[in-house]
């Protein structure tokens, strides 16, 4: 076979065979197919799409380019969760220990943030001493001992995806449903869990900007999970405004702690309980929302989170330390009415400018920086009410304040956003 012939075949809208896809991915992972040819293939896929069979073959070919984690020694139905990314998304910090508090094993590998989207690993590393790099043996032993572990993805896991994702990021081919689906599901399949909850974010701060595209992606990933015998559910969730109150690594950890102490906003608390109920159902546990909420607010989830932090080397005293940002700046409402919009993308980019996110992968993070919202969409404000607080280790530029103000939309009509838009089973 020749890569150029397969690129031409896909360019002309024809379907690649199982053998052709396997050959391409295997040889790309081994360095025999160069980046410039894989870039051409990605662009051909961008314009021509892929069939269900092609996406399945691509996913499984990528799985075979690295090690697969064997979780069979863990008792019970192992669960995993993935989010397609957003702003202020601290869900894993709460959801993983919450589900584990029901004696359901949660073995999760997470990623870092890039651009306006935050990464779970970055949030955990804002805790002094927390170790994200664990061997497969240590990872499995921790789940055996305390029921939960959240670590970084092994370099040996799905090698082709790591190479292809870096390539897509610089060739404007990130937002292609076949490549998103195969990237997500190859990692989830290789990670070894029996059941997978997919949080597919939709809206201004997500890769999927509209519900139609998000539903296609959701159904594609659910079908891929079903193909390989993994119980999979996709939940389409609203990312039109930042999730919860905090955007920024240390600040999101602190908000997660508040939620696990029963002191979080009601909307995000209820949302996480709904996700936990679905995740538990995937593991064969039928629990009421009331029971799930009780575990969240009575300290059981928090205890499990503290166990995880301590087991992975984290300092429990540092865990509860407030942000040490040098500059704290308030942004107040300039008119009276209901907040009708807080665009997630814009506030994600503002947080990134403060140092809370990366413009490129090599950027150093400021774990203390970010935003905390006192008011969200649907809340009423009077002139002078505090809407958000900026945390920064550099003097806050006037342009940042102006950008915050212009992105706070206030109107006369109350809009209550819905967190869960659709569940795809």
Automatic annotation (TrEMBL):
Its cofactor is K(+). Its EC number is 2.4.2.2. It catalyses: thymidine + phosphate = 2-deoxy-alpha-D-ribose 1-phosphate + thymine; uridine + phosphate = alpha-D-ribose 1-phosphate + uracil; 2'-deoxyuridine + phosphate = 2-deoxy-alpha-D-ribose 1-phosphate + uracil. SMART domains: PYNP_C. One of its GO terms (molecular function) is metal ion binding. Coiled coil: none annotated. GO terms for cellular component: cytosol. One of its GO terms (biological process) is pyrimidine nucleobase metabolic process. It is an enzyme of class 2 (transferase). Keywords: Glycosyltransferase, Metal-binding, Transferase. Residues 338-411 form the Pyrimidine nucleoside phosphorylase C-terminal domain. Homodimer. Belongs to the thymidine/pyrimidine-nucleoside phosphorylase family. Catalyzes phosphorolysis of the pyrimidine nucleosides uridine, thymidine and 2'-deoxyuridine with the formation of the corresponding pyrimidine base and ribose-1-phosphate. This is Pyrimidine-nucleoside phosphorylase.
